[in-house]
Amino acid sequence: MSAKDFEREYKREFEGIIPEDDFEEEQEETKEDLKIDEMQKTNKAREFEKVAGERVVICGANAYEQKYYFNPIFRQIPDSIKKELNIISVLFTQEAGGIFTIVFEEDGSISIETNADEEDITYDEITAGLLVSEVRRKRQDLFEALGLYYRIYVLHENPADILDSDES
Fold it and tell me: Given phi > 0 = left and psi -120 to 50 = alpha, else beta, which region is 95?
């Protein structure tokens, strides 16, 4: 990837700026996104499962490399939720250290995972466990909503069936 291509992608992803020469291309991509039929969605879900072994990482943070990752597959998620996931992940690694990930399980539920290198003497397993419990408790609504999003838009479950199963 050339420096110009990198800059264009960076501006598009992080600043929301679409260079004029890419505007028509971007409009075509948007049109394609709006016309995804059920077969393509099903194939897309299968592709996610292959990549992650039935699990899909939403986001994660790494205290060792001081980096945050958000899976571009979920770029349609509202920015406010992306920012909240970013804050949760980064603050977790600042407090407990190690590597923190939020993952969709194959059934649409959310798992929060944390681990550390064996040589890392600063990683505190007790603090990490307490923080995971606190994040789950305080952000329960967020994780339930993300789970519904995944089940409806990725796994293509019928929303009526999901609501019926939740009521019983």
Answer: alpha
